[in-house]
Amino acid sequence: MGFYDDPKYGVEQVLPMKSLANQTSVIASQTEIARHTFMKAVTVTDWNVRVLVGHTETSGFTAISINKSLAGTGALSAFGTASLSTNADKSVIDDAVTANQNFAAGDDIVLAYDAGTALPAGAFRVDADVLYKQRFTQ
Fold first, then answer.
1. Widest pairwise Cα distance in the chain
2. Total structural domains in the chain?
3. Is the pLDDT of residue 61 over 70?
């Protein structure tokens, strides 16, 4: 029987996902704003959205999703969606994943605005914090 004594085993860690740029338009198709490739197998358990530059909702529904992309495929599969309404600068939206998601080494996690999202004029910008645990496989 093996023994693993790395102090990170079973400990939840935070992955900050920084958005690439401000967005100011109606999103015609899903638009990626941040991507991270996991170098080890992990399980994602939770996420929060951080509003860096807030806005007042006047133009319609605003949604951001967290997605899984299998290595090399490019296809996105959402496992959490946050609805954004009127948000102040530096506010946090506590959201949840629909179910814990296992990622293999090489899989991508992607933060994206969903199709049909109407973003306000100005400098609206969000980031996300993703909670994950490293998985140890043999």
1. 60
2. 1
3. no
Q: What is the CA radius of gyration of the chain?
A: 16
Those residues whose C-beta lies under 8 Å from the C-beta of residue 73, and which sit 6 or more positions away, are none
- Nearest C-alpha neighbor of 45 from the set 113, 96, 84, 106: 96
Domain containing 41: what range?
A: 13-134
CATH number at residue 71: 2.60.120
- Specify the amino acid at residue 118: A
109 neighbors 66 (Cβ within 8 angstroms): yes
Task: Give the tokens for residue 116.
Answer: 């049909």
| Structural domain contains residue 5 | no
pLDDT digits (tens, 9 = 90+) for 7-52: 666 788 999 998 765 565 667 777 888 899 999 899 999 999 888 7
**Can you tell me the distance from the alpha carbon of 19 to that of 84, in angstroms, rounded to the nearest whole number?**
15
Q: What type of residue is 62?
A: T
Quote the pTM value: 0.81
Instruction: Give a yes or no: residue 6 inside a domain.
Output: no
Structure-block tokens of residue 73: 């495929």
